[in-house]
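To illustrate the input format used throughout this study, we show a single complete record. The first block contains the structure-token representation of the backbone; no residue identities are included at this stage. The design step must infer an amino acid for every position from geometry alone.
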């Protein structure tokens, strides 16, 4: 799998493949000894997913739904194929003013203010694509009664995870390694993906156990 896609996606790694599998982007079969076995269709799904993530900045959930619909014989519209104003996400370096951020996110000014107050967003005259993603997510959570005030612990947890990543990936710039900064960024992103898998797995385990965290004993 890696060899077949390495030329197109040099950042693809075994941990990234496992992450995509955890997200439902690919479901490889297994050999009798438990090794993953990727079919041509699996390779094509991964290629399409990586292209859509790279070129259209789409969330993996949206990509997975599109691929599933297509595999079931449907002809869904390719996400992000319309004009940029209706795309699901924007590049992180695209900047939006406050009214445009609220419009694209479908959020109220009150929700944005709550997000700023709880540290989930930073008040600014210009907002990025990542800010838009955050605010859109908060809109969806608000619909089920989860507001920014309920997510304060997530910011603390993110800071803790950032500390773990910084310990595991010391800056190549400080070590004087040419080109190491880019590799550090890629490795840090991979570690962030792995930490997300741990978090999601713990939640699923707790749900399977009736909402009770498993004992460490």
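Output of the design step:
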């Amino acid at each position: 799998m890696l060899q077949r896609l390495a030329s197109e996606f040099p950042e693809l790694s075994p941990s990234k493949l496992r992450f995509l599998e955890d997200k439902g982007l690919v479901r490889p079969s297994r050999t009798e000894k438990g090794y993953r076995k990727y079919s041509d269709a699996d390779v094509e799904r991964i290629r399409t997913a990586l292209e859509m993530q790279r070129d259209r900045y789409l969330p993996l959930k949206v990509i997975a739904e599109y691929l599933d619909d297509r595999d079931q014989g449907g002809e869904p519209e390719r996400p992000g194929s319309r004009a940029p104003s209706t795309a699901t996400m924007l590049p992180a370096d695209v900047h939006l003013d406050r009214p445009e951020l609220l419009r694209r996110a479908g959020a109220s000014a009150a929700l944005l203010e709550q997000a700023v107050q709880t540290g989930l967003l930073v008040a600014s005259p210009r907002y990025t694509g990542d800010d838009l993603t955050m605010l859109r997510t908060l809109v969806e959570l608000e619909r089920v009664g989860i507001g920014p005030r309920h997510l304060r612990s997530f910011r603390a947890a993110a800071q803790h995870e950032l500390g773990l990543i910084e310990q595991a990936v010391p800056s190549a710039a400080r070590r004087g390694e040419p080109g190491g900064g880019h590799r550090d960024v890629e490795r840090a992103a991979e570690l962030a993906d792995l930490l997300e898998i741990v978090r999601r797995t713990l939640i699923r385990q707790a749900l399977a156990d009736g909402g009770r965290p498993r004992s460490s004993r």
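Structural context for interpreting the output: The chain has two domains: 2-84, 90-168. The chain has ten helices and two strands.
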